[in-house]
Amino acid sequence: MAMCAELVAAGEADAMYAGGVEEASPLTENVLGPLLSARASVERSEGAAALLIESAAAASARGVTPLGEILWTLSWRGAPPPGLSAVRRPDLRPVFSIGADVPAEVVPPSWREVPRQSVVPRAGCHEAAGGMSAVAMLGQLAAAEIDSGLIVGVATDRGVAMVVGPAPGRS
């Protein structure tokens, strides 16, 4: 998701679909599970998610109002970068959404007291859990249940964080 958001923001594409899918299989469980899971001890499940990320101009040309706006993104390999700790929390009704358990050092200080939600208890732990978190948060933004949110996903040696808010023109 973060890569698609960065490419659209840079003008490399007007719109991109970001998605993930994981089917339960012995190959996934035995080989990819330990490589891709935040913790190899977490039982993996199957799931899929897709999200259209597009520029405001592309959405306008289609005659639609986006559900939300990506305000900030960061992806990393290895240790979480120092810039993650500086992510400011918007003042009004934020929520912190996670695809799976997130280590304490990954949570920006200003977001540590924000209510957390996770799709994992209902949707399972898989490569698409972060995408499901984003879709759930966008639904909450569109319904005006929240005003902003931080989505964090981590796996062995990598991670992604995105701050989203309401799209301009959506009340």
Structural class by SSE content: alpha/beta
The N- and C-terminal alpha carbons lie at a distance of: 24 Å
Calculate the mean pLDDT score and round it: 84
Estimate the helix proportion, in percent. Answer: 25-40%
Order of helices and strands: HEHEHEEEHHEE
Number of strands: 7
Strand order of the largest sheet: 3-7-6-4-5
Describe this structure in words.
- The protein has helices at 2-9, 26-36, 56-62, 120-123, 129-142; strands at 15-22, 47-54, 69-77, 94-98, 116-118, 148-155, 158-165.
- With 171 residues, the chain is an alpha/beta fold.
- The strands form two sheets. A five-stranded mixed β-sheet has the order 3-7-6-4-5. A two-stranded antiparallel sheet has the order 1-2.
- The radius of gyration is 16 Å and the shape is globular.
Annotate the secondary structure layout.
Blueprint: H1 2-9, E1 15-22, H2 26-36, E2 47-54, H3 56-62, E3 69-77, E4 94-98, E5 116-118, H4 120-123, H5 129-142, E6 148-155, E7 158-165
Parallel strand pairs: 4-5, 4-6
Antiparallel strand pairs: 1-2, 3-7, 6-7
Looking at this protein, list some descriptive labels:
171 residues, alpha/beta, five-stranded mixed sheet, two-stranded antiparallel sheet, 5 helices
Summarize it.
With 171 residues, the chain is of the alpha/beta class. The chain has five helices and seven strands. A hairpin with a 2-residue loop joins strand 6 and strand 7 (158-165).
